[in-house]
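> call design_seq(struct)
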């Protein structure tokens, strides 16, 4: 059974930084894409950033230049370095892996990020 475990969330003041991590355990293979999504209260879950197994990255416009996604393929781990945080970055952050060559979708349990003004 594959599990994704996130860590690194918390409370931070505007302008601060946080680093999220998401590690996969279990028999996971053929990972195509690792991604981070955010869900704010009353809103739908939306893509924040993603990285392919080839290293191509994509970001939501709202986080470009402030967030950086990276991966450690050997550890099946994805990171999200968040800088210059704003109150509107507040939400629950979920990691997502598309694996088995894109045929399986797995989600983490979510980690809360709160940015105070």
């Amino acid at each position: 059974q594959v599990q994704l475990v996130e860590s690194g969330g918390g409370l931070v003041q505007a302008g601060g930084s946080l680093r999220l991590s998401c590690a996969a355990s279990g028999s996971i293979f053929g990972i195509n894409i690792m991604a981070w999504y955010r869900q704010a209260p009353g809103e739908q879950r939306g893509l924040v950033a993603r990285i392919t197994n080839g290293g191509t990255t994509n970001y939501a416009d709202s986080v470009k230049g402030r967030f950086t996604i990276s991966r450690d393929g050997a550890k099946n781990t994805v990171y999200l370095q968040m800088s210059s945080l704003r109150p509107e970055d507040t939400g629950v952050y979920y990691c997502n892996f598309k694996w088995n060559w894109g045929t399986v979708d797995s989600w983490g349990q979510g980690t809360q990020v709160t940015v105070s003004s």
